[in-house]
């Protein structure tokens, strides 16, 4: 997974984590709805513990995933799971298809809510704009998507820094009061594990980005960094939400609820645009993984037209689901079932069978037989 041009330190250590963040943020915390759903039941302090637990799970799973992918020369999730699960690899593909349509439906619904809340547009309009962006980037391939991750991340972190500074400036006392003496509810463990479970699939979605890794040290370090890089904005966002705990938990768009109280229409538009960008990069990542999986079994590389056509079929169906069910129901009813599927088909096999295989290969002093052709047979 190295390249002849000599990958930079950014490509080796930070790009995988930023790509993982790109997958996680849209379905993890861009609107704040997911944070309310999984962490508010545990209370303020318990919610923070749950977030830290999820971050630790992400770092661990990313590190092992990157090591396993490098050992097996897995450039897409199909090859990865043929090495990990053998003849049972279709079990993960079924879970991933469910994940793909669920998150794209959630993002379509969220984009519709943003368009309606900020610009007064009909709910379908925001979904259409998001779909157009997904199709544009998904058709262009890995190099363009890597640049999207880089520049979108700079924009995203900048906006979050401003958001947190404004929130603590105006509501810092309320945030501290909410945290002081807050009891820790036992739901923090299940909430953190469930949240980590459905999001951690991002580690295998970004396998094409791992081509820049040059050693196991790169893979392990990049994996450990992925958790904090992805979780830091979520923790800061959660703290800002505590100023309005618990009533903000019932809002479809907690982010917009806070922004309206900050009283800056210009920043409100900037923040909502940032959310749109976050939804876009997550969606593009998920669809790109499907394109790369199909590309791995075709005789000729997929062209822009084929990538566009595959993305269009996926996106149209997902946007239909978004309009049919709505944001809150999709998150509340779909994410928990999805988390269990991902844990059973990916996380548990990786941390047991995958670790055992890595140990066995290291004892032999060589990696697994990585021939992509045999993995695709």
Number of structural units classed as domains: 1
CATH class: Mainly Alpha
Rg of Cα set: 20 Å
Beta-strand content estimate: under 5%
How many helical elements?
A: 15
Here the CATH topology equals: Amino acid/polyamine transporter I
Please give the alpha-carbon distance between the first and last residues. 21 Å
| Overall mean confidence score, pLDDT | 85
Topology of this protein?
Blueprint: H1 9-28, H2 33-39, H3 43-72, H4 77-85, H5 90-119, H6 123-138, H7 142-179, H8 187-199, H9 202-205, H10 216-241, H11 254-262, H12 265-295, H13 304-325, H14 327-364, H15 372-376
Helix pairs in contact: 1-7, 1-10, 1-12, 3-8, 3-10, 3-14, 5-6, 5-12, 5-13, 5-14, 6-12, 6-13, 7-10, 7-12, 8-14, 11-12, 12-13
Structure, described:
With 377 residues, the chain is mainly α. The chain has a single domain (9-359), classed as Up-down Bundle (Amino acid/polyamine transporter I), CATH 1.20.1740. The chain contains 15 helices and no strands. It has helices spanning 9-28, 33-39, 43-72, 77-85, 90-119, 123-138, 142-179, 187-199, 202-205, 216-241, 254-262, 265-295, 304-325, 327-364, 372-376. α5 (90-119) packs across α13 (304-325) and α7 (142-179) crosses α12.
């Amino acid at each position: 997974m190295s390249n002849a041009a000599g990958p930079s330190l950014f490509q080796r250590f930070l790009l995988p984590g930023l790509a993982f963040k790109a997958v996680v943020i849209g379905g993890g915390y861009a609107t704040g709805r997911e944070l309310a759903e999984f962490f508010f039941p545990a209370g303020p302090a318990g919610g923070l513990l749950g977030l830290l637990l999820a971050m630790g799970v992400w770092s661990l799973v990313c590190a092992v995933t990157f090591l396993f992918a490098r050992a097996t020369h897995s450039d897409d999730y199909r090859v990865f799971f043929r090495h990990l699960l053998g003849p049972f690899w279709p079990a993960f593909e079924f879970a991933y298809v469910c994940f793909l349509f669920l998150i794209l439906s959630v993002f379509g619904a969220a984009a519709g809510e943003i368009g309606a809340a900020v610009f007064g547009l009909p709910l379908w309009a925001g979904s259409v704009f998001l779909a157009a962006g997904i199709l544009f980037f998904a058709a262009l391939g890995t190099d363009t998507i890597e640049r999207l991750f880089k520049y979108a991340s700079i924009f995203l972190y900048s906006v979050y820094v401003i958001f947190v500074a404004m929130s603590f400036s105006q509501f810092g006392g309320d945030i501290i009061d909410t945290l002081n003496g807050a009891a820790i509810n036992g739901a923090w463990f299940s909430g953190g594990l469930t949240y980590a479970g459905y999001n951690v699939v991002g580690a295998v979605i970004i396998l094409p980005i791992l081509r820049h890794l040059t050693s196991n040290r790169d893979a392990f370090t990049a994996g450990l960094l992925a958790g904090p890089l992805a979780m830091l904005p979520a923790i800061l966002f959660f703290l800002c939400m505590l100023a309005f705990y618990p009533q903000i938990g019932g809002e479809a768009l907690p982010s917009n609820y806070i922004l309206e109280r900050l009283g800056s229409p210009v920043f409100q538009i900037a923040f909502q645009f940032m959310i749109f960008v976050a939804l876009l990069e997550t969606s593009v990542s998920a669809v790109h993984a499907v394109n790369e999986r199909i590309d791995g079994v075709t005789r000729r590389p997929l062209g822009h037209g084929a990538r566009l056509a595959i993305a269009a079929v996926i996106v149209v169906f997902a946007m239909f689901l978004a309009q049919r069910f709505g944001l809150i129901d999709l998150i509340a009813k779909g994410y928990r079932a999805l988390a269990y599927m991902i844990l059973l088909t990916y996380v548990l096999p990786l941390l047991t069978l995958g670790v055992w295989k890595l140990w066995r290969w290291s004892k032999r002093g060589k990696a697994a037989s990585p021939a992509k052709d045999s993995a695709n047979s």
